[in-house]
Design brief:
Elements lengths: L7 H9 L4 E5 L13 H14 L5 E2 L25 H18 L4 E5 L11 H22 L12 H6 L8 E5 L3 H6 L7 H10 L24 H20 L1
Parallel strand pairs: 1-2, 1-3, 3-4
Length: about 250
């Protein structure tokens, strides 16, 4: 279900059933001449489109304006849009504040941009990770007051952690590709892997007639194929589905 198209009764039903709520978080960044700048976000959007047909799922409007950086190319005449992490973090806090106030407790954010470094964190995912923890703390304190963790009602806090019942699981930030998927299909930038993924998930944003070998990072795109992309696509969708159904 697309959140912006849902009626209030459907929103209430999703809350009562603890239906997963998913956000595609990404950037607009230059990906060579043969790919659109929306690669990192479009991959997540298209994956969620597929999963929406298979499992109960609320899909939030996607967020394209992450911290892309200008590390790949300067923006002039290339299309990259960079929003600094210090801007993203307060935005993310406000977003999570509203989602928690509405009643959602099963929120998932998926990020592909720079996900090869997801375990260490990069500006976009770190902004949203920090905002999620901050807003959960603030939300519980507003609801239960200071000292909430130390009172008797929280006596089973550690036991709850062991069975994934912690309130800090209300909002989860995930890499689009699991560690296993990244090992089998190594991450690149506009090369064989990303170009193949786009062929599988969003073919209208790929034009190999425009491909240029000028940039080192995209040279392997000449080896891209739909077969490779579909193999990776199947693994990614399986992993995402598992995360959403936990």
């Amino acid at each position: 279900m697309r959140y912006e198209l849902m009626f209030p009764a459907q929103i209430r039903e999703a809350i009562d059933k603890n239906t997963p709520v998913a956000l595609a978080l990404g950037v607009l960044e230059y990906h060579g001449e043969h790919l659109s700048p929306g690669v990192d976000t479009l991959l997540v959007i298209r994956a969620l489109d597929i999963l929406e047909k298979e499992i109960p799922l609320v899909i939030l409007p996607p967020f394209f304006y992450g911290a892309s950086s200008f590390a790949v190319e300067p923006p002039e005449r290339k299309g990259t849009i960079h929003v600094a992490a210090e801007i993203l973090q307060p935005f993310a806090r406000q977003l999570f504040y509203n989602l928690l106030r509405i009643g959602f407790r099963n929120i998932h954010v998926f990020v592909h941009h720079q996900c090869e470094n997801f375990e260490h964190g990069m500006p976009t995912d770190l902004s949203f990770k920090l905002a999620a923890k901050q807003e959960i703390f603030s939300f519980i304190e507003r609801e239960q007051g200071e000292g909430w963790w130390g009172n008797e009602a929280s006596a089973e806090y550690y036991e709850d952690q062991a069975i994934d019942q912690s309130p800090f699981n209300w909002i989860s930030i995930h890499p689009f590709m699991s560690q296993a998927a990244r090992e089998e299909f190594p991450v690149d930038h506009a090369g064989e892997q990303e170009t193949s993924l786009m062929m599988a998930f969003c073919p209208e944003a790929v034009d190999m007639d425009l491909f240029s070998e000028e940039k080192w990072y995209s040279k392997t795109a000449k080896n891209a194929s739909l077969k490779y992309g579909n193999r990776a696509k199947d693994m990614i969708l399986t992993d995402l589905k598992e995360k959403l159904q936990q």
